[in-house]
Structure formats: structure tokens, C-alpha cells
Design a protein that fits this description.
mainly alpha, two-stranded antiparallel sheet, globular, Preprotein translocase SecY subunit
């Protein structure tokens, strides 16, 4: 079966793609949905002066707002109906995963199968509404209290602005959540990830143009730009290699006799990814670490003196900032890996179905063996995440490079691209299998 799949994958070409009508329809649907999303990132909220808003946001671009704006494809800096993007849904999903790991009721609900999954998804949607409403109100209140040399960014009644902002941003986020689900069901899959991917990639041409303009004016040497481009290609290859890396643990199933037939006896493998946590650790670490910088920016230097001193030590590129950043990435890598993969549960499932690791006794010994291997893999995975995320921070602080395509965004873009290509290949593979089945039926009728 595996060799047949590999043979079909090797024979994939543009001719096979041209015959896959369903796949082409899925791709066109995905592109149309992403175009609708990008159009929405240019529809502004009512009651905002764009000139004043641009001046205010330029002072906050180094904080958490700048990072969220990168994920939103510039929608936050323009304060549009999709300003919060899909991030509240991501936050609600992560919170539900954490609660499932610590709450017996939610854990039991997860084990109920499809019905339990639907209930958890419903709770996630409710959480998304609550988180979006709180963030929308915070943004509205924050903008109302901020002014620039040209005055306030709010041009309508403050209470009306808060009300319309909360309603509009909640509606925008819920629409994006629905749009992501439609892309997953009727498109090429990974709808939520593709929306974030589109937002990040939309800023890439502007970042490249800005870098080239700095090279033209002499602010950055041509040699440095060439080195950056080569480094970016090298980092992409490194990310692809590390994301595909996995440890395959051999699982053996015993032979059993049913009547006159001997069943089982085959071997399989349990793949453990090198980076089980994905991009969650850098996102969490960046969000928490940039939060005090954003709060200080909102206070406009009018807060207590200790807050200003802390901001100086936590500035981008400062040793304390880099140390805390790396430490938090490592912590969340281990923490989230423990949440998404339970060695004891995996060992119990293997024992339940008669599977075992050769040379390891089922049960507790298998659990300890899996935990030991997973810990070693997570050490390498955390070091890989820290290295990829640390590189742009050093370039920004030491060489003043406008490296907007930073570590977290680069990880998201590469991993989503790999997943999307895998989805397209699976659709092509399924289409070719259908063609083989139809041919075999026609030959059988003859």
C-alpha cells in the first residue's frame, strides 16, 4: 500500500492536476475566500481619523500591537473590521486545549468522540465571542484615551464609538472564523491557518520593498541585503528539515488465531515529531514579553519610574529581553508538548489493542520509555525554535534591519505551506485512486 502511494505521488504531474476538477474547484474557492478576507482588511471602523491613527500606531509598532498587526496583515494598524483577525479564536482554542488537560469533565467530553468534539467546538466559539468582546472594548477604550499632535483619533461620541467597535470587531472575527471553517470544508483545508498565512504574506512585498529602498539610499549595504536573502533561504530549508524530522518508534502487534486463520503479527510505527508544540511557544512568549512594552507605550511615559526602567531592560535586543524570550520559548515548548501528547494514555491505548514496543514491557515501562524519548526530542525542538526566533531579534537590534518577516511569522508561513502542499497532494492521490478503481471496474465488466 505504501509503495503504491509513493508510486502515485511520484507520477503526479500537471496533467493529473488538470483532470482533478474537484481539486481545482477547491483551490478557486480558497483563493476567493482569501480575497474576501483581504478586502475586509481595508474596510475601516466608523468614527476614526486615519491620519491621527497612523501617527499613534507608529509609536506602538514595536510592542504587541505590532506583532498582532503582522498576523492581521496590516488590518490592526488601519483599524478595520478585521482588526483582531482570527487571533481570539486561536486564543480560545489554546485555552480549551489547556482546560481539557486539567479538567476531568472536559477530558471525558473529549473521549466521547464526534459528539464530544462538537460540544468542545461550541464552547470554543463561545470563548471566542467573550475574548473578542473584551479585546475590542480594550482597543476602543485605549484609542479613546490616546492623542497625537493632531488631536484625538476618535471623531464620534465616545460611548457610540465603543459600542460600534465592539459589535463590528466581534462580527468581523466571527465571520473570519466561519470563513476559515468553509475553507477547511470546501477548500484545500487548514482554513484558520491559511487566513493567518495570507495576512503575514500580504506584508512581505512591502517589507522587501522597504529593505531594497534602504539599500538604494545607502542606509544598508548591498552585501548585507544579499547575505539576508541567502540567510532567509537557508533558514527556510532549515525549518522544513526540522519540521519534517521525526522519531519513528516501532510498534509490534502479536499474532492471534481466529478459527483457522492467523490474524495480526504485523508491525507499524508511532511517529513522534521533533517539534510537537509547533508555533505555539513563540507566539505565547512574544505575546507575554511584549505586553509590558505595549502598556508603557500606552502610558506615554507617564507611569511609575520602575515601569520605565523595566522597559529599558526589556527593549528589543537587550540581553534580559533575549534571555527571557528564550526561556519562555523553552518553557512553553515543554508545557504545550505535555498538553498535546500524553505518554501514559498512549501506552494504555497500545496495551488495549495488543501493541507493544519490542524490548519494552507494556504499560508503565512503555509510558516511561515514550516520555524519555519525547523529552529528548523536545529539548532539540525547543533549541530549534529558540534559534529561529532569536535570529531576527539580533538582526533588528544589532544591524537595524527591517526584518519584518521574523522568526514566528516565518515558522507559520513555512509550516502552513507544507501542510497545504500535503493537502493538495492527498487530493491528487485520492483522485488518481478513484481513476484506478473506475478503470478496474470497467475491465471487470468486460
Amino acid at each position: 500500500m505504501a509503495s503504491a502511494a509513493e508510486q502515485l505521488a511520484a507520477n503526479m504531474n500537471f496533467g493529473a492536476f488538470a483532470k482533478a476538477t474537484e481539486l481545482k474547484n477547491r483551490i478557486w474557492f480558497t483563493l476567493g475566500a482569501l480575497i474576501i478576507y483581504r478586502l475586509g482588511t481595508y474596510i475601516p471602523l466608523p468614527g476614526i481619523d486615519p491620519v491621527v491613527l497612523k501617527d499613534i500606531f507608529s509609536r506602538q509598532s514595536g510592542g504587541i500591537l505590532g506583532m498582532f498587526d503582522m498576523f492581521a496583515g496590516g488590518a490592526l494598524s488601519r483599524m478595520t473590521i478585521f482588526a483582531l483577525n482570527i487571533m481570539p479564536y486561536i486564543s480560545a482554542s489554546i485555552i480549551m486545549q489547556l482546560l481539557t488537560a486539567v479538567s476531568p469533565q472536559l477530558e471525558a467530553l473529549k473521549k466521547e468522540g464526534e459528539s464530544g468534539r462538537k460540544k468542545i467546538n461550541q464552547y470554543t466559539r463561545y470563548g471566542t465571542v467573550v475574548i473578542t468582546a473584551l479585546q475590542a472594548y480594550g482597543i476602543a477604550a485605549g484609542l479613546q484615551g490616546m492623542t497625537s499632535s493632531a488631536g484625538s483619533a476618535i471623531t464620534i461620541d465616545p460611548m457610540m464609538f465603543r459600542l460600534t467597535t465592539v459589535i463590528t470587531l466581534v462580527g468581523g472575527t466571527m465571520f473570519l472564523m466561519w470563513l476559515g471553517e468553509q475553507i477547511t470544508a470546501r477548500g484545500v483545508g487548514n482554513g484558520i491557518s491559511l487566513i493567518i498565512f495570507a495576512g503575514i504574506v500580504a506584508n512581505l512585498p512591502g517589507a522587501l520593498a522597504g529593505t531594497l529602498e534602504l539599500g538604494r539610499t545607502g542606509a544598508i549595504s548591498t552585501l548585507l541585503i544579499i547575505v539576508l536573502l541567502m540567510m532567509s533561504v537557508g533558514v527556510i530549508f532549515f525549518i522544513v528539515f526540522m519540521e519534517r524530522a521525526q522519531r519513528r518508534i516501532i510498534i509490534q502487534y502479536p499474532k492471534r488465531q481466529q478459527g483457522n486463520k492467523i490474524m495480526g503479527g504485523e508491525s507499524s510505527h508511532l511517529p513522534l515529531k521533533l517539534n510537537t508544540a509547533g508555533v505555539i511557544p513563540p507566539i505565547f512568549a512574544s505575546s507575554i514579553l511584549l505586553l509590558p512594552i505595549t502598556v508603557i507605550g500606552f502610558s506615554a511615559g507617564q507611569g511609575p519610574e520602575w515601569l520605565t526602567t523595566m522597559a529599558a531592560y526589556l527593549g528589543r535586543g537587550q540581553p534580559l529581553y533575549l534571555f527571557i524570550y528564550i526561556s519562555m520559548i523553552v518553557f512553553f515548548a515543554f508545557f504545550y508538548t505535555a498538553v498535546v501528547f500524553n505518554p501514559s494514555e498512549t501506552a494504555d491505548n497500545l496495551k488495549k489493542y495488543g501493541g507493544f514496543v519490542p524490548g519494552i514491557r507494556p504499560g508503565k515501562n512503555t509510558s516511561e520509555y515514550l516520555d524519555r524519548i519525547l523529552t529528548r526530542l523536545t529539548v532539540l525542538g525547543a533549541a530549534y525554535l529558540a534559534a529561529v526566533c532569536l535570529l531576527p531579534e539580533i538582526l533588528i537590534s544589532q544591524y537595524s534591519v527591517p526584518f519584518y518577516f521574523g522568526g514566528t511569522s516565518l515558522l507559520i508561513v513555512v509550516t502552513v505551506t507544507m501542510d497545504t502542499v500535503a493537502q493538495i497532494q492527498s487530493h491528487l492521490l485520492a483522485h488518481q485512486y478513484e481513476g484506478l478503481i473506475k478503470k478496474s471496474k470497467l475491465r471487470g465488466r468486460r
